[in-house]
Amino acid sequence: MLNTSPDFKENSRRAMQDAGLQKALDRARKPFAQTRAAAVARLPEFETLRETAKGIKNHTLAHLDFYLERYAEQVEAHGGQVHWCRTAEDARNAVLDICRRVGAKTVTKGKSMISEEIGLNEHLAENGVRPVETDLGEYILQIRGEAPSHIIGPAFHLNREDWEASFRAAHTHLPADRVFHEKRDIQAEARAVLREQFIAADVGITGANFLIAETGSSVIVTNEGNGDLTQTLPRVHIVLASLEKIVPTLEDTVSLLRVLARSATGQEFSVYTTFSTGAKRPGDPDGPEEYHVILLDNGRSNMVGTEFRDMLRCIRCSACMNHCPVYLTVGGHAYGSMYSGPMGSVLTPAIFGADQAHLLPTASTFCGKCESVCPMKIPLTGMMRHWRERAFERHLAPATTRYGIRGWGFVARRPGLYRSVSRLAAWGLGVMGRKRGRFGWLPLAGAWTAARDMPAPEGETFFARYAREQRSR
Length: 473
Fold this sequence. Notes:
The chain has helices at residues 8-16, 19-28, 31-41, 46-62, 64-77, 88-101, 113-117, 120-126, 136-144, 160-170, 183-200, 226-232, 250-264, 319-322, 327-330, 341-352, 354-357, 369-373, 380-393, 399-412, 415-432, 446-449, 462-472, and strands at residues 81-85, 106-109, 130-133, 203-206, 210-212, 217-222, 236-242, 246-247, 272-276, 290-296, 438-439, 454-455. The chain is an alpha/beta fold. The strands form three sheets. The protein has a six-stranded parallel β-sheet with strand order 1-10-7-4-2-3, with helices on both faces. A four-stranded mixed β-sheet has the order 8-5-6-9. Strands 11-12 form a two-stranded antiparallel ribbon. The N and C termini lie far apart (62 Å). InterPro entries: 4Fe4S_Fe-S-bd, 4Fe4S_Fe_S_CS, FTHF_cligase-like_sf, Helical_ferredxn, LUD_dom, LutB/LldF, LutB_C, NagB/RpiA_transferase-like. This is 4Fe-4S ferredoxin-type domain-containing protein. Residues 1-21 are annotated as: Disordered. GO terms for molecular function: 4 iron, 4 sulfur cluster binding; metal ion binding.
């Protein structure tokens, strides 16, 4: 289970020096934002849909206990079974128990961030069950021994030559003259290998974008069709989902689907949107003999009723990270968590604890772009501020940072003193920097000047100019 969040600063330094990663980030920086903008422009009622989606999730969270119970009743009515899991360990053990009971040796998996959150692959492998990722990006990361760096595009950080090198290392049957000029060459090679795994699998595990209380259905959206094969070919289908994925009705689900794909990939709808309801019924041509839902809490119920409740509206579209200048500079792995970018900076401390992830909420310029594109209108910057406040109160931030903020706060709360200090500081720095016009080093600002020069102040302060302009009017 990946969690190197305490190393965020060092992770970021390495990421910015990684030429291959920077090449991949440069290539991907514009397409996600451009396709989303185009998709939104084609739908005049998009803003109205955002409000509708927000209202649906707020209503669900306000009555979460009711809809969870309703969902469980419907799953059981359709021959399925719900496993209530408070912790990651509970969820791992529930999956392993099912696999052992049915004698599973191979498990195919559709992309699931919950499986990353609970460290499922490692747990299954340690207990003699071989997990096989079937999403193309997840598959290449599995044979590379890497974790996903993006929710929608897990191999966001790789270049084509990385994919080819990984296939050659893992697929020893490849002839030396086999080339991978285009995406379809990579897809064909993966398809040939994974087809055998789909057929051999005893258990299929998928995530869920939504769980519908009205019908007991799970919904998964993909662009590759691997989710369908994962949940229909094996004898047993296991759905891994966190409890906030509950949605009241089919109609509500459609409303959320309309904002999901547009926000994620700029599509009106994903290529495959699959509804799964229970086990195979008499007369059905295909489908699993057993249907299980692992419902995970893992700290989420502690967020209900707090200043972090709005984070539970997240539908994992990745729009916030696709527009975040910090994420697009350091990539997902720097965050040290399966949840990266602005949404990860809020969710990771809630799941793993602020002591482990208190640096992540500082990984933001607070430009507000994440909030402006979030289809669920989640106040991400406000919640990052709350985590910063908690880190300050619990002395998790470095002493120099705490004392600096406390000193600044003392001055900032006294307008007259603030104006005097800022005027004196601007004058002094202006005099000292007059010759070069910039500073290569400043006391108490070493972290800033280590990577960039600081311009020397010129002219009067903003307050002085504002007062002068007001007098002149």
